[in-house]
Amino acid sequence: MSAKLDPRLSLCAEFITKGGVLLDVGTDHASLPCFLIESGAARLAYASDIAEGPLCAARKNIKKRGLEDKVFPILSDGLKDIPAEVLSQATDIVIAGMGGELIAEILSFAKGLKSGVNFVLQPNTRARALREFLAESGYETVAERAARDGKFIYTVINARGGGEPKKLDRLAAEVGALDPADGPSREYLLNEIKRLRAAARGIASSESEAERKRAAEIYKTADEIEEYISRKG
To answer: Least CB-packed of 117, 122, 153, 210 within 10 Å?
Structure first.
């Protein structure tokens, strides 16, 4: 029986192509690759990490679960050191549990991939920066949903490359493809409103006119998200 995943990784697993080849970047304990193999969702998986410590933990978990012939650990800085034959096989690439800007940086090295690769991206912070990078780099966001995991709420973006580059407007960059009719997604957006308003309050009293204008823009963005929730939810 497959070990249970936490809600964050469970949501990532929902976006995986059935029967594909997974490359999990920043795998930590290889929990997701092992689960996907055991559940039959993936036929082969590669678990990569930048540091030997997490990769050692991944190897132990893979061995404990008897998956040495199905899940293969790789030491790599993002996608930079992934062998070409692995990149050419991968149908799905997961990059989860790191900042949005770091995920964007990793994706900038996404070369030699199979056409139509399915990307599952879970930023812990700076989701807006990742959404902007994806749009400007020609990625299409297929879906986006949020999941509550303990006291935190995470968003997961499902994307594919090969589209036309575009620039997101301010609201689209903040809300992505989240549907406020979905409970966790609504909660995520409400938290974003609180975060933005707190940031605006922090700079609104500045003596700098430019900073006061910036605060006003942040307040406006928060109001636009609130209106979006009211309209869509």
So the answer is: 210
Q: Residue 158 in 3-state DSSP?
A: strand
Tokens of 151: 């006291």
Give the model's pLDDT for residue 162: 87
90/69 Cα distance (integer angstroms): 16
Mean pLDDT per 10-residue section of the chain, whose length is 233 residues: 85 97 97 97 98 96 98 97 95 98 95 90 98 96 97 97 93 97 98 96 90 95 97 83
pLDDT score for 69: 98
According to the model, what pLDDT value does residue 2 have?
A: 62
pLDDT at residue number 84 = 94
Q: The sheet that has 152-160: what strands, in order across it?
A: 71-75, 42-49, 20-25, 92-98, 118-123, 152-160, 140-149
Rounded Cα gap, residues 136 and 175, in angstroms:
16
Q: Measuring CA to CA, which residue among 145, 220, 129, 214 is closest to residue 183?
A: 145
Beta bridge partners of 120: 94, 158
Q: Which amino acid, one-letter code, is at 19? A: G
Burial code (b: 16+ CB inside 10 Å, e: under 16) for 116-136 equals: ebbbbbbbbebbbbbbbbbbe
CA distances (Å), origin 107, targets 8, 116, 187, 214, 220? 21, 14, 28, 30, 31
pLDDT at 120: 98
Residue 82 CA: distances (Å) to CA of 19, 25, 67, 79, 217: 21, 10, 20, 5, 42
| Cβ contact 171:228 at 8 Å | yes
Both tokens assigned to 82: 């992934």
